[in-house]
Amino acid sequence: MTSQTKTRASANAAFLKGEKQIARDRVHLDIAAMANARDANMNKLRQLRLERDARDRHTAAAMAPAKAAGRKGRKG
User: Which residues does the annotated region (Disordered) include (predicted)?
Assistant: First the structure.
């Protein structure tokens, strides 16, 4: 090998090393973006579930006295 061939091979290796690092960084960014999107969706769904549960508890509490009063008035 001549020195020019060695230099070119070294330059190619350095270039490929840089390209691989850029590809790795891109993959890591994509994974982080997907994780952030998943977490945001999970938090949104959790908030909706908590609101639904609170609404259901409120409705059940409002209905409970009416049912109890209805049963007390009915004796066999």
Answer: 54-76
